[in-house]
Amino acid sequence: MTETNALSGRSWRSTALYAVLVLLVVFYLLPLWTGLVTSIKADVLATAPFLPPAPAGFTSVHWTRAVNALAGGLVNSLILAIPATILSALLGSMAAYGLTTLDWRYQVPILMLFIAGIFIPYQAVLIPLSKFWASVVPVSDLVGYVGLAGWVGDLVGLILSHVAYGIPICTLLFRTYYKDFNEEMIEAARLDGATTHTIYRRIILPLSVPMFAVTLIYQFTQVWNDLLFALVLVGPGAGAPVTVPLSQLGASLSEVGFGIRMAGAFVAALPTIIVYVLFGDQFAEGVST
Amino acid sequence: MARLELDDITKHFDDDGETIVAVDDASIDIEDGEFLVLVGPSGCGKSTTLRMIAGLETITDGELRIGGRRVNEAKPRDRDIAMVFQSYALYPHMTVRENMSFGLEESTDLSGSEIDERVESATDTMGISDLLDRKPSELSGGQQQRVALGRAIVREPEVFLMDEPLSNLDAKLRAQMRTELQRLQEDLDTTTVYVTHDQTEAMTMGDRIAILNDGLLQQVATPLEAYHAPANQFVAGFIGEPSMNFFDVDLEGDSVVGDGLDYPVSDDVRAKLDTDALVLGIRPQDIELVEEVESGHDVAVTVDVVEPMGDENNVYLRLPDSPAGETFIANVDGRTLVDEGDDIVARIPEEAVHFFDRRSGEALRNREFDDEADVDLSL
Asked: Which residues form the ABC transmembrane type-1 domain (chain A) (predicted)?
């Protein structure tokens, strides 16, 4: 009797567990699903929000219009996010190496500065930052000397800003990772004749791959999704990253463009999903270490 | 190959403004091709000494010379040394071949084929030729140990430094690697400094052993000398398994008295005792168990615990007046049958007795041993 009770108790528990899991899946996927079906409806009010359109009510016009409206922004975002991500991850890893594996004075105060950098609210630096790129280092004028349009300069400023604000968190992530490295291994490399530089290149860097996946995904998503810096430092126009035209998508039309907004959101989010898929395995490995 | 000289080497660490002396005025001359074992309890400064030789720690004071050249300020890479670490410290992302060629690539101008040749001959020596393309994670502990050694010998350095290289191996493999290391060092004839806390390794492997305690060098001697003629009470207690038994005694006329002992000493021995406050030391192996008291050197005791080891027994003995738990050990033949609670007699032969100054710990009288000449030869 007790055995069957225990058995039914266990199966009841796992049933409940699966029910909760299914509910959570629905909860997370419902907005995406609703967005997806809305983006392919000719008349968004024809059926309930989460139901797909009738075959006659299907349209791909929102998608083509969204892609057309966002194509330039997508390219700009790639030009922005790829170098900004790679640079902040690489510089963060170098900084972490210098602050963790090497031994020198004043490491701690400098590390404190880095940590403090993580907590700087972006809103607080918006005005000084835009002044900096406008007056102190006027990048949009500077690129004019080599015959480039002003928006290229704005984009360069935006890239450097993201690199600067991304380095602290990347440094911290790499530092946690490097702290677990076997100190004797680094010493062995020093005795083997490797210099500080070759130790980084031949030992530290190859062993950092999982953590690079973590920082690349994290930083890419951060930079890609940023609207605040993009709006203030570049603004609408030829250099605008995708988040800027996305925020205006649909609003400029006479109707309330739910369909095109939903399609636009998917178009804009696609690259981050691709990055997750590409680096996902490495990411899991990096997070678990 | 080179002579390695430590001249008044001192290391101070700074701990929140307080100075900690890790190594104090250590002077050791290590001959070309010699195998020197640095031994001591943990925290005694042996690893720090080794790391100073390697250049991983700065030297606070004194001079370090390799082949007559002062290397205090030289970077590790410029000292022509190779080190084997306790954790093996292999590069996990490289194959065995890459691990072993890394040092040659970084520190020499050898061509690729010359490097390959040297790596292959080193792997032959270590018997790991079939592992060349494996990564460290695919190797057993013993194999990793061999790779770590191979990585050191492929460099063909002037000096090998080894920091407890066998302590991560199981007992059987450790004994096997011990002999193998000795044979290897003899073949290569490279000056070697070997750090361990294991006195068996110290006794069996070293040409000479240097015993450190609290940053102070206690004695540098051949293993047999350290065993039979320890410089002080610390060395006497550290070298030898089980440890030497000590009794606090005072010289009173013709005898030393204390700790329940009343032990007569001969004139020869007494002449060497220049103080009254003494410690009497006797190795467990030198104590005999007999049936009856026949002379003043026989002491009636009670058997407390017997540890049978097969070939020998460690018998814990208690003097009649000493409190429970306060025992001394006799190491006797495994076929000697004694039981807990037996009343028995321990014979402490005078020729095997050591005396130490109780305050300074300095040895005043060491046991007699016949083959003193033999020991001197190996110096």
From this structure: 74-279
